[in-house]
Amino acid sequence: MSASGAKQRLMSEYKALQKEEWVNIDLNDGSLFKWDIALMVINPDSAFNGGYFKAEMTFTDKYPYEPPTFKFLHPPFHANVYADGKLCISILHTPGEDEQSGEQACERWSSVQSVESVLRSILLLLDDPETASAANVDAGVMYRFKRDEYNQKAREAVEQSKKDVPAGFVVPTTVAVAAPQSKVVEDDDFWAESGDEEDFGGSDSDDDMEDEDFEGSEEEMEETDEMEA
Fold it and tell me: How far is CA 99 from CA 31, 96, 133, 151, in A?
């Protein structure tokens, strides 16, 4: 698969997520392969309600056939979050069944997943941790048997996260976050040009193109898309 195919897919997803209110995304140094993310919890029933959790997401040029990585920069106290901020979540595991973990292929990464489906799954995981195979055993035990103490830890994480809210930015309080979608919304132009799933249709010259600086106006990004196509 060509790097240009991965870029086209990522640009399509990046533009779509720019319209969402529950997530802020910037391209790290203008690269489509490393995203700086702020994931907002907008759910009054959540212990993490009001949180503004910064994270980073990285991709390879094999995306979407290889999963991205996700890491909280300031890890909340949670059963499925490791001390280094990485997540234990099935959707980010490599494709295929895993007999050792018992995970089925449908639970793990596949090329029909998307950044949006990953982020929405993470939001659901924050409120419904998987305690049977906890990355943070203490958090898992506290969630099950000392929920009041757990909720206090969650509130502390929320207050800590608010220190990362940019000046002048107001975290929304009424945005409804739907359940995760397993299938990505496909861009007609992109898929029309891309051919079968083994080859996204990029030319050899596209593979040699260096990452463009995608910061700037919407018009500049559209012009870049036309150049890469």
Answer: 36, 10, 15, 34
At a CB cut-off of 8 Å and minimum separation 6, what does 222 contact?
none
Residue ranges of domains in the chain, CATH in brackets: 3-164 (3.10.110.10)
User: Per DSSP, what are the bridge partners of residue 69?
Assistant: 58
In single-letter form, the type of residue at position 165 comes to V
Q: Is 88 a catalytic residue?
A: yes
> Strands 69-72 and 52-58, how do they pair?
antiparallel
The token pair at 176 is 């409804």
For residue 53, report the phi and psi dihedrals to the nearest 5 degrees.
Answer: -95, 115
Distance CA 97, CA 14 (A): 29
Choosing from 79, 88, 142, 177, the catalytic residue is 88
**Residue 153 three-state SS:** helix
CB-based contacts of 88-92 (< 8 A; 24+ apart in sequence) = 88/130, 88/133, 88/134, 88/135, 89/121, 89/122, 89/125, 91/67, 91/117, 91/118, 91/121, 92/67, 92/68, 92/118
The answer to whether the Cα torsion of 59, 103, 23, 70 is positive or negative is negative
Tokens 């980073």 label which residue? 56
User: Average pLDDT of 21-25?
Assistant: 95
**Residue 158 near residue 51 (C-beta atoms within 8 A):** yes
Query: What stretch of H or E contains 71?
Result: strand 69-72
Residues 142-146, mean pLDDT to the nearest whole number: 97
pLDDT in tens, 147-180: 999 999 999 999 999 999 999 999 998 865 444 4
